[in-house]
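User: For a benchmark we're assembling, each entry needs the component sequences followed by a predicted structure for the full assembly. Here are entry 17's components. Please fill in the structure.
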Amino acid sequence: MATFDTQKASEIHRELHSHLPSEPALRVKALESLMVEKGLTTSETINSWVEVYSEEIGPKRGAQVVARSWVDPEFKSRLLADAAEAIKEFGFEGDATGHLKAVENTDAVHNLVVCTLCSCYPFSILGIAPNWYKTAAYRSRAVRDPRGVLMEFGVSLGTDIQVQVWDSTAELRYLVIPQRPANTEELGEKELVKLVTRNSMIGTDRILGKSTEGES
Amino acid sequence: MPVFEQEWQAQVLAMADALIVNKSIEPTHWSEAFGAGLAQAHAAGRQDDMETYYAVALDTLEALVTTHGKLTEVEISKRCEAWKQAYLRTPHGQPVKL
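Assistant: Structure for entry 17:
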């Protein structure tokens, strides 16, 4: 029969183990502490990145860029000519958007962005990529069967609309400029920003101005 | 839905980005190695989910820092064990230090 002391010791042991981080979390702690010691990064850099990408930087940045392009034709020209340079007007430049290309949807063309290799994504203006963008299923099918993938996102394209698929790389990432929704002539730039969905800037959404609930 | 399911997942991407920004790692090296790891995981029949995605990201980061001579595998595994022991000996609620 276990004595009180052995039972207590066992409870303490279990308690300690229950607070032990997971194996990958421990490996990450090991890597980070070693990298900091070797001067490869700082704890502040890592903590700040985690904080801004967990809480602050999201697709609203991209939405601001898109809305500006809808109301300012000269900005749109600059954006289409050199997106990496144009987004500097917002202070949104970042390493992930050092080479950024904006591609415009029209009545005749729909653009869809993927990274078939891994998950390259313009995260400094769209935030961290959605989970589905990172899956092998999306990465492989977006090129092979873009219309089928789009159907799964509720985007049904007529045969008169050409689908252009853009394969991102570490050195060239894409931003889709969706079409401005109909009957929004009265709306200002700030109101228009609210209509731009993240998925529309990837190309898995096309007609804006409808409910975006459930987009994840 | 939170952007990251676990904090370590965010930290892996943060470290990778930090190494790319300070030019310790070439962005193409990162994407090629990460892509190869994801393809290998897919071929091995691993789940097509975020657990696999971030596990491969961590494996890739470890592999790149060791192949580029920034750290050694022994250093990493010793440090990992040191953190584990530090957690085990530190009462809950107190800061864990090496």
